[in-house]
From TrEMBL:
Pfam families: Polyketide_cyc. Residues 10-128 form the Coenzyme Q-binding protein COQ10 START domain. The lineage of its organism: Bacteria, Pseudomonadati, Bacteroidota, Sphingobacteriia, Sphingobacteriales. This is SRPBCC family protein. InterPro entries: COQ10_START, START-like_dom_sf.
Amino acid sequence: MPVIELSTLIDAPVERCFDVARDIDVHVASTAHTGERAIAGRTTGLIELGETVTWRARHFGIWQNLTSKITQFEYPNYFADEMVNGAFKSFIHEHHFIGLNGQTVMKDRFEYESLYGLLGRFADWLFLRTYMARLLEKRNEVIREVAECK
């Protein structure tokens, strides 16, 4: 399974970064280029343990729905969301927050498995892993900007 790991330094306290990262409205802003919006479950505000959100977005010219659920939650250091239904066979996205002298290191670990077996693995190699990494990098940049402005 492909794994994408990112680390982002944010000049803001860990609690603020944690809350910004789980804010549905910030997520929508960070994926505006895909037309992404929350259409079911938690559709605005801060998502909590056990809650789901269904996203609708256009990727590769195709409108898709994806539902994820917050399955782990340790305020303000860690939460994880897992796909319940969507375009992957599975995924888990872990979000870690480490406070350092008023700043925060936000670490993402996104592990996913594509559908379609060998064809899916070829798509991972050819373009999907890079696409997903860029999507997460863009999202982290918006999280950083919002957290640093508050």
